[in-house]
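Reply to dn_fold:

You asked what the input looked like. This is it:
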Amino acid sequence: MKVFHLSHTDLDGYTCQFIAKEFFDDIVFFNANYGKEVSVRLDSILESITSDLTQKLSTKFQLRKPLSYLILITDLNLTLTESASLDKQVQDLREQGYEIDLILLDHHISGQECANKYPWYFLDSTRCATKITWEYLLEYYTLKIPAHQPWLHNLVEMTNSVDIWLEEGYNFEFGKVAMGMISASNELNRFMFDNEHRFYKFRLIESTKDYLNRENGAVEFDNALFCIKKQILGGDPYTQTMDSITSQAQVRLLQDKKQECSIHFQDKLGFLSYSMGGISVLANLFLHANPEYDFYIDVNSKGNVSLRANGNCDVSALSKEYFNGGGHKNASGGKIEGFRESFCYADIKKQVLQKLQIL
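and this is what came back:
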């Protein structure tokens, strides 16, 4: 069975996924905040299922048994419209022969109407989503490493205490540190580095293991957290600043995306990122490490554009002509008029290329 797991973007949401990977080997993760992103991620899951089966059927090897899939949604309450659309699409795929199970595990009371209508929509407002997910998976699936159960149980109880605000619950103070840790750990951009961003947060969650049962664990973990983050990002906490470590980690990840993110504009080669923000240090470091690029461009969710160069391109002229902006030769900014926010990098790139009159 292949699992597609969609969850929220806070401590509870990511811990649901951290728990799920302890039960399933073949699992693909998606995350969403509320609003349009939920539908986008659900569509991506359904597209992934159809393309996965199509790819397998196109091979010369005959399938011995039907492929089965589980769509697992946690810590997200869907609207009636989203629920109806998902239910119909899953039913349509089942009629085409797909074996798909669908389960939503949530605790937000605002989803009660959907829970009343759809049997796959499980709602319990007395537990956080992590605890619901943990207890559901323990009942219906097998923990891959049984020896992990005690510490995972503690992680679940800590998350439950802080997420539904049980001040007398297990390790409530620790939970407040962990909640802030997840909300503030955005060193790796979620839209550019989806898997790496999630893995980073998984590593942070895993790092609580050595502190959860200590008498003064919340304070000790709070004090150690900055160094832990530096180490997970691949730096030396005693000789490097966080800014330096983060920038170098980002550049390494961006270099892996050259084929996807390159823009050929006239006789110049540029690199396009989305919602990186504050790119002065990052862009200059990237251009220095990758001298084949003439400029770097970042677009945020509102269509604001930041451009940087390293002497090989006048980005002020580029910005003035195409983005109604300006600035300096090596540092400039502007805006894409009529910009449409998207959660898909390909959509962002298409809009930029259209603006540069390349498409």
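The chain has three domains: 2-147, 171-256, 258-355.
Hope that clears it up.
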